[in-house]
Amino acid sequence: MTQRTAVIGSRSGLHARPASAVAALAANHPFDIAISLEGTDENDGADATSVLHLMSLGAQHGDRVVLHAEHVGAEEALDALVRELEKDHDAAQN
């Protein structure tokens, strides 16, 4: 199983705009990608392709989330998702 940790970069947390960007990126891969708040049971992870599941994590700015996938190419996919999660999607609004 491949795993990566990311720190939520958006000032307002993992709300609709960053969740949409992450879900769209995750949907480009033909395998399951799960995401959970660090310190929670990985079996309770959310589907990273679902905007609603991502938002339901309640991840705030600075929170750490863990991505999990098991497939060839998972390393690159998770690295790209980490970059997306660590962007400040709210900075573009100012």
Automatic annotation (TrEMBL):
Species lineage: Bacteria, Bacillati, Actinomycetota, Actinomycetes, Micrococcales
Gene: ptsH
Annotated source species: Arthrobacter globiformis (strain ATCC 8010 / DSM 20124 / JCM 1332 / NBRC 12137 / NCIMB 8907 / NRRL B-2979 / 168)
Protein purpose: General (non sugar-specific) component of the phosphoenolpyruvate-dependent sugar phosphotransferase system (sugar PTS). This major carbohydrate active-transport system catalyzes the phosphorylation of incoming sugar substrates concomitantly with their translocation across the cell membrane. The phosphoryl group from phosphoenolpyruvate (PEP) is transferred to the phosphoryl carrier protein HPr by enzyme I. Phospho-HPr then transfers it to the PTS EIIA domain.
Residue intervals of the HPr domain: 1-92
Ranges annotated as spanning the membrane: none
Lineage top rank: taxon: Bacteria
GO process annotations (BP): phosphoenolpyruvate-dependent sugar phosphotransferase system
GO cellular component terms, A-Z: cytoplasm
UniProt-annotated location(s): Cytoplasm
Keyword Cytoplasm included in the entry's annotation: yes
Alphabetical list of PANTHER family matching this protein: PHOSPHOCARRIER PROTEIN HPR (PTHR33705), PHOSPHOCARRIER PROTEIN NPR (PTHR33705:SF2)
Keywords assigned: Cytoplasm, Phosphotransferase system
InterPro entries: HPr, HPr-like, HPr-like_sf, PTS_HPr_His_P_site
Descriptive protein name: Phosphocarrier protein HPr
